[in-house]
Amino acid sequence: MKRWGPNYRWYVTITAMMGTISTVLSSTIVNVALPDIMGTFGMGQDKAQLISTGFLAAMTGTMLINAWLVDSFGQRATFSGTIAVFIVASAMGGLAPSEPILILARVLQGGAAGVLQPLAMVTIFQVFPPERRGSAMGIYGIGVVLAPALGPTIGGLMVDNFNWRFVFFLVLPTCVAGLFLSALFMPRRAASGPRKPFDWIGFALLSVFLVVLLNGLSNGQRHGWRSHMVLLNFTLAAVSGLAFVAWETWTAAPMLNLALFRLPSFSGASIVAIVFGAGIFGSTYLVPIFVQTIQGYTATRSGLVLMPAGLILTIAFPIAGRLTDKLPADVMITAGLLLFAWSSLLMAGLDTNTPFWSLAVWIALGRVGLSLIMPSLNAGALRALPPQLLGQGSGALNFVRQLGGAIGTNLLAVMSERRGQLYAHAFAASQDTANPATVDLLRQLLSYLLAEGGVAEGGVAPGFGAESIGLAEGQRLGYALDYLGRMLAAQAAMMGYRDGFLLVAIAFVVAIPPAWLMRLRPRPAG
């Protein structure tokens, strides 16, 4: 708009960031409130899982309809309408009187978030000239990565000091600001003529694929990976996924243009995006769970350990964006992948005595790596596309990143739990009289119990928080064995989380060769 002058592109960027920050923040801020939500409604783990799974499935599915909405209604109407839906859904979640209303609110939030994120990226990409798009993607990346970094901290503060409902209300101010600014700065519909038909069949197949796949991953550990329900979910996911690919190849108006993946640079970027999504969302999931269950952190303190990394990102992202305009995308992405892999490798050495600041520094190192990846990934992937495919490309790139986050988070959770169980069985099998460490520990515990006089009034052994009274020898042995069992369980869980971080490190190293494909340029048409 000429009346806004050369600063117009920054006004558009600020407007788009209002939607990005709000939606990405909502994807992580609710996680720390789940225990309180379960207590309020008396929900079981299966229904509580729907709060996260429903959001992720809806968000991932609607990312691909962004191109059709912008082409049919324009960026302003799409942004305003979608952020209005997000405002209503957030208020509905905060005021929810029952669990079905809360789950519906999260699904609506996820659906709106899936449209807003790629819309913000492609809008910023369009208003900046080619030589400044890397810097623009650096600004955009702040919202994508900063919000998950700060979400657990803010959510923990809300839960510990107020109420879980405030985690839904917290995003309303930025949403309302974005709604007001979009009426002023967002561009109107550029296309003329009739609207293209919407790919309802493709959208339905994709929705079924996401729901049954995430449901199978979420329930496999609880119901058994060979149970009829889980196998049915995976079978339906395979059938619907293959049907979606076949339909998108055949239909004249596909929701996902599979021709995008014929470009080596876009295919390489998509593989990196999957690993990127799994890394950022998976680590954001593993770290709070580890420090709360293994190190005994509160919800607020578990969020605070991510805070330094978020603050560093506000400096690292603009710098990384400027470097993107000067250096090849594959160089920046390779450096970022190596940094995050190094961070995850350090995290694979965590134990119960790891200091707070060591953990915070290791996380910050990984986030610096992500700041190098994000601008180059977006700019490098979209740079090779013609203007008419920018919307499709933006939606597809965000889709694969979010799909990686959804699947990666579930797989990391499952793998960490299963590895913890395997370690627990192995540790238990080695606890016999032939193990000198076990014999020595039990001897020390029994000596301590005998010296202190037995066990506490509340039935807890000395050293567990109370004054002691006399106990028989058999009772002392029982408390010593119970203490040993809890030590082994904590050690096994810790080893399971370590393996999870190690898997993330390996995945980021494996993603380096696909990043080199971004150096290839498509051959000119004809």
From TrEMBL:
<feature type="transmembrane region" description="Helical">
    <location>
        <begin position="50"/>
        <end position="70"/>
    </location>
</feature>
<feature type="transmembrane region" description="Helical">
    <location>
        <begin position="137"/>
        <end position="158"/>
    </location>
</feature>
<comment type="similarity">
    <text>Belongs to the major facilitator superfamily. EmrB family.</text>
</comment>
<keyword id="KW-0472">Membrane</keyword>
<keyword id="KW-1003">Cell membrane</keyword>
<dbReference type="InterPro" id="IPR036259">
    <property type="entry name" value="MFS_trans_sf"/>
</dbReference>
<keyword id="KW-0813">Transport</keyword>
<dbReference type="Pfam" id="PF07690">
    <property type="entry name" value="MFS_1"/>
</dbReference>
<keyword id="KW-0812">Transmembrane</keyword>
<feature type="transmembrane region" description="Helical">
    <location>
        <begin position="229"/>
        <end position="247"/>
    </location>
</feature>
<feature type="transmembrane region" description="Helical">
    <location>
        <begin position="198"/>
        <end position="217"/>
    </location>
</feature>
<dbReference type="InterPro" id="IPR004638">
    <property type="entry name" value="EmrB-like"/>
</dbReference>
<dbReference type="InterPro" id="IPR020846">
    <property type="entry name" value="MFS_dom"/>
</dbReference>
<feature type="transmembrane region" description="Helical">
    <location>
        <begin position="332"/>
        <end position="350"/>
    </location>
</feature>
<protein>
    <submittedName>
        <fullName>MDR family MFS transporter</fullName>
    </submittedName>
</protein>
<feature type="transmembrane region" description="Helical">
    <location>
        <begin position="303"/>
        <end position="320"/>
    </location>
</feature>
<dbReference type="InterPro" id="IPR011701">
    <property type="entry name" value="MFS"/>
</dbReference>
<feature type="transmembrane region" description="Helical">
    <location>
        <begin position="500"/>
        <end position="518"/>
    </location>
</feature>
<feature type="transmembrane region" description="Helical">
    <location>
        <begin position="164"/>
        <end position="186"/>
    </location>
</feature>
<keyword id="KW-1133">Transmembrane helix</keyword>
<feature type="transmembrane region" description="Helical">
    <location>
        <begin position="77"/>
        <end position="95"/>
    </location>
</feature>
<feature type="transmembrane region" description="Helical">
    <location>
        <begin position="12"/>
        <end position="30"/>
    </location>
</feature>
<feature type="transmembrane region" description="Helical">
    <location>
        <begin position="268"/>
        <end position="291"/>
    </location>
</feature>
<feature type="domain" description="Major facilitator superfamily (MFS) profile">
    <location>
        <begin position="12"/>
        <end position="455"/>
    </location>
</feature>
<feature type="transmembrane region" description="Helical">
    <location>
        <begin position="356"/>
        <end position="374"/>
    </location>
</feature>
